[in-house]
Amino acid sequence: MRCFPAVFLGGFTLSTLFSLPTAQAQQVPAPDTTRRQTLSEVTVTGAATHFAAPVDGTTITAGRRNELIKPREVNANLVQNNMRQVMARVPGLMVWENDGSGQQINVATRGLSPNRSWEFNTRQNGYDMSADAFGYPEAYYNPPMEAVERIQLLRGGAGLQFGPQFGGLLNYELKRGSRDKKVEIETSNTAGSNGLFNSYNAVGGTVGKVNYYAYYRHRQGNGWRPFNQFSVDDLHGNVHVALTERLTLNAELTYLTNQLQQPGGLTDAQFAQNSRQSTRERNWLSTPWLIPALTLDYKASERTRINLKTFGLIASRNSVGFVAALPALDTVNRRTRQFAPRQVDRDDYRNLGAELRLTQDVDFLGRTHTLATGLRAYRATTERRQRGTGTTASDYDLSLTGSGLFTNEFEFTTTNAAAFAELLLHVSPRLSFTPGVRYDYLRNSGTGYLGRAANGTENRVPDQKSQRNVLLYGLGSEFQVSPTTNLYANYSRAFRPVLFGDLIPPATADVIDPNLKDARGYTAEIGYRGNYKNWLRFDVGYFFLNYEDRIGTIRRPVPGGTAGQTQQFRTNLGRTQTHGLEAYAELDLIHSITGNFNLPHLDLFAALSLLDARYGSLPVTTLTGTGTNTQIVESNLEGKYVENAPRQTLRTGLTFAHKSLSVTGQFSQVGKVYADANNTEEPTANAQTGAIPAYQVADFSATWKLGREGRYRLSGGVNNVFDARYFTRRAGGYPGPGILPADGRTWFAGLGLTL
Questions:
Q1: Contact, 546 vs 604, CB < 8 A?
Q2: How far apart are CA 329 and CA 351, in angstroms?
Q3: What's the pLDDT at 40?
Q4: What integer is the mean pLDDT of 270-282?
Q5: Which of 240, 339, 441, 460 sits at 20 to 30 Å (Cα–Cα) from 270?
Q6: Angle (nearest 5°) at CA 312 between 307 and 317
Q7: Which residues contact 182 (CB under 8 A, 6 or more apart)?
Q8: Which residue has the higher pLDDT, 29 or 57?
């Protein structure tokens, strides 16, 4: 075993980082307590980003790209969940930056859509936290980064153990109580620009066989733009009880309540004139979220580990606002002297699920291998009510006026049963293979009505049902080049289920293909990672993502209809292909030259992504002419760039760290992207379509620990130091519509205390 200090010093821990050869288990010798030795003072640090062990708990990661990020060891704005800082070392991370409250996290990699992280299987402590993992996989809830111990990101084949998604797994693991104190109290209070105030308060510890941890976080502010105020409250508690030496029971409960005012979108002309302005002051969003979970961990033997998770969700998504497309203004009607009534949309989610995972070490052909298996059962129900006529007021009010009825109303259900198995097979001390297979049974259904006739009766749509059995497979491999570096490669199948929005047409005249099927494809990657001489950490790889049967809408003649009669037809159209380079490195500049790790640290990191994401054969149609002279003009998107897929993303930073002080400067550069598949350059009048220019943004942050064991903690920073004006998203509806500007220059400063 080699012991080495961390390469990147975004903060401070009281642990030493060990690098283990990933192809074999290592034994750590017990310390000799019979001798005592006085050591000179050293700076003990932790790595902000590192790679998981080949078997991480009940998860096999060997042969796959993975990252483990520890937010508290990164100089970043944790208060507002600033993911361009927290996850800056993840190559190719695309972040939609339009929510100054930090409540909505929108991230993706490899050219996929960042919309509420829905291309990932998003989890907290290993259980689902999104609205519906298959029918509506948007993550309206995200934990505060101050409460997160580490972020687990598994891409490529590693995600096969958790679900079929192309993006892989994004899992937030929350803190637990102190193992060596009965009571430990943590408080952190932060102030910042635009009325920002954040208070995080936690208590935890271990009493006998019980470990506990609970936190309460309150965050409020007025936002960088007018009419952008927010108020967020988070509660969480977890209790781990060692029932026996081998059996542990964990119960936890998470609750979020919030009110977010949304300033709406801008046209391109408005953004150029003043990107800080707002034309909507009556738009609000609230997403109360309750997640109970119960976990059993059983260590049947030194070679057998069993984990059972049961979890639920009781949550809502409620919005009210004036959502007419730009350039419409939300102004007082001269005749009525009132604002127009607002639109009310409400979702209610009720989910229940369970996952059983087993990891078993087995001996075969003279070597020890690891088998991971699992079962999943899941049911989710969504009640969706849309386009209700709300009040003419400006506050958060979900009351309905007029008939008191919603124009659209549906009930969706998702049933999922799954099983997986993966085997970490050691062919030699340096070479391993990881074959895996996953089976999913999935059933979606939807029933309801879309609009009302003139007499008020419901325009019911045919009940929508989709049922299928999906078999996925993958293969990973890893070769230990040296004790601290390895080559990895893998291939894995994936699929994107038909979503609720695909089952129900946006208008009564639209037609859904009765044979509509899931989007399918695969991901393949190869890379080289590790560390070199204690001062360089790196991971460089190439990937290819093939996305087949993308769902879209075309206009076609009505079968059996009259001449010129057409219809919008939603069906599977074609594919996209994305490939590129992902490179990450961190270099300890001073120690690489001197070899003296008692000197201050000056660490440089860079995360670079170069990708090419284009449409293959993807037919589209447009309609020209009127009446009987209507003609359908066919074209093809082949060769067009995929939306929200920047060809180049670079994030780099420099950290100085010595003893109790750590200072980081970071620079991000993201290339130009398109908002639509047609790659429209010139923006439309409603600003929903058009190019999204490249942008650059710099951040500065620092941490200073004081007192015994760093009991006091001062932190602060400046986001967007040079006040760059840019945007990352054009929205078609909520939280727009139109351009959603990113925040300009803001600051934050906080004081923390641990007792």
A1: no
A2: 39
A3: 38
A4: 95
A5: 339
A6: 140
A7: 205, 206, 207
A8: 57
